[in-house]
Amino acid sequence: MEKIVSAKNERVKKWSKLKTKKGRVNSNQYILESWHLVSEAINANQNVEVILTTSKQYELHQTEVDSFDGEIIEITDDVSKVLGSTSTPQGIFGIVELPKEDHFDSLDMNGSWLLLDQIQDPGNIGTMVRTADAAGFDGVIFGEGTSSQFNPKVLRSMQGSQFHLKLLEGDLLDWIHKFKENDVPVYGTELNPEAVSYDQIEKQDAFALVMGNEGNGMQDKILDQTTKNLYIPIKGKAESLNVAIAAGIAMFHLKK
């Protein structure tokens, strides 16, 4: 097994840049951290090109790592700290080819989809993707202004659910137009005079649910294009619900 001991190694420098969007685009790769995520990617037939592991992590996962048919490289703790996105990285990483984007016109829209409108917080994104996975959704669409699905913090927060459903990116107005063309209702989330309580909508198989920015909610231009806007009645004195909590309530209620 090859061993890299210096954080100044050229390959290490290149891999470290995968924590940035520019680095990912230039290399057509992204980096996963933790054996849980790496193994999830392998099991989902993602193109994991390299596994990087400290000696300690290799001892913990030797049988599984040895069964990997790609390149395996041992790294030092110092290299791990350069590649990791936490103060105490676990010490095992996967270098993965960026997945090919699904063609816009080739997708079957008759399913349940979560649309993220300028959601910024990685923890909220991860919670919503995991909840969509648990609720049996077909996919999640990251709108413009939403944190990247390949951001290390977002990857860590999604905990592998990203490999269980489709994750797409694009202009939400284009997607909403496509849903409506296919007679799929699009529900926004906003408290306004025209909105209805979420529990007044029947469960269904095919629909899209849009969740808006943590502080500002959905953009007006997107609210104007929805089939109907929903709200969740607050019975106590809280001013509002966290966006991920609200998404969970709505997803489990709407999904048939």
UniProtKB/TrEMBL annotation:
It holds the Pfam family SpoU_methylase. Gene3D superfamilies: 3.30.1330.30, 3.40.1280.10. Keywords: Methyltransferase, Transferase. SMART domains: SpoU_sub_bind. GO terms for molecular function: methyltransferase activity. Signal peptide: none annotated. Residues 31-102 form the RNA 2-O ribose methyltransferase substrate binding domain. GO terms for biological process: methylation. It comes from the Bacteria. The keyword Transmembrane does not apply. Belongs to the class IV-like SAM-binding methyltransferase superfamily. RNA methyltransferase TrmH family. This is RNA methyltransferase. It comes from Apilactobacillus nanyangensis.
